[in-house]
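Course assignment 3, question 2. Fill in each field.
Student: A.L.
Task: Predict the tertiary structure for the chain below.
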Amino acid sequence: MAFESLSDKLQNAFKKLRSKGALTEADVKEAMKEVKRALLEADVNFRVVKQFINAVSERAVGEDVLKGLNPGQMVIKIVKEEMDKLMGSETTEIKLLPSNEVTVIMMCGLQGAGKTTTVAKLAGKYKEKGKKCLLTACDVYRPAAIKQLEINGEKQGVPVFTMGDQNSPVDIAKAAVEHAAKNNIQIVFLDTAGRLHIDEAMMEELKRIKENVSVTYSILTVDAMTGQDAVNVAVNFDEQIGIDGVILTKLDGDTRGGAALSIKAVTGKPIFYAGMGEKLSDLEQFYPDRMASRILGMGDVESLIEKAQNAIDEEKAKEMEQKMKKASFDFNDFLDSLDQMEKMGGMQDMLSMLPGMGSQLKNVEIDDKQINRPKAIVLSMTKEERANPAIINPSRKKRIAAGAGVDISEVNRLIKQFEQMKKMMKQMSGMFGGKRNKRFRMPFGF
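Answer field:
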């Protein structure tokens, strides 16, 4: 879970504030010491930490806060607001040129930061929005870089422009943009070469591409796991070639978090997206306020709602409502709900976005493979059995268990739970209709 250790330390600091009915300047000062220590351990830039602590302290020791009805909560609210500002306050969108012009996005970064995977993820995002995209293989040095881009492009359904590894990246970029203009392609993504470290040759090549091609956005991919080093890389790239923004990768692990909290403050450049996993769908728009909420243990319900809206087909949801009211849904519907949950990132990811759940999940490892064991059981059933569970007799259960590679007791348990769930959902069916829940339909049974 992203920022787990930082979140734990900050919540411990706030726990003491919440427990006190009244606060003194000394209480605030002590809490800010703990916050400062937590941020520095998370590898946040020390100048950024100093400015942040000063800004919070200045607002928190005001008379209105210390003598307020709930001073602890007011201090936490100030921390949240200042953290929003630190990461950019508002979400920054990548604005495309008019549809009759080609938007050129040059992706750059060090080797190992996940640039080639990220550029395919980004292209997939825009393809979903109905944009015609082209991935361009400009990395002619790294073995298998072109092949990797072709594989990822095929998975995303986005064509890849390549001229092999014998042409210069500048010529490839120029040819790709010309090809896009002739074929009404709206966005060209340039996957440039990374290096193990920042070197002069690398920067010169990027400069030459920008001199020969009208680059709309230069986006840097940085590895969030490297903490303050990621910020230093961003500063270097911005000084030498000029970047328009950043995409943070590997933000799904318990990273030190320093990059997310420092980059905007140090470089002035926004974070466009965050990579939250290895799958090609695991790229999220970066919302500073939502990220601050996650870090402070307040959850991220807005992102959870968006994931649900993207994953759940509206027509299927309406159909499911009717089935639930009549208690007529079957194991085929159950499979649909599991697929929808997978699209949303799995149970652990979903629960971590609920307010207050982050700390409770600290020592709980939810294995989505274990949760999906029922899927294997259902897939071992015949079409008739899935549609009409009532016909599943002991001999059928034995066959299903053998097909799924589980004990027959697991089949019995699943069928029993399924029947109980049908009864419960019939009783609760009123909760799933009407305007109140129109925005957010979770997969049934979860």
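Instructor remarks: Residues 408-427 form the longest helix (20 residues). Residues 87 and 288 are 5 Å apart (CA to CA).
Grade: pending
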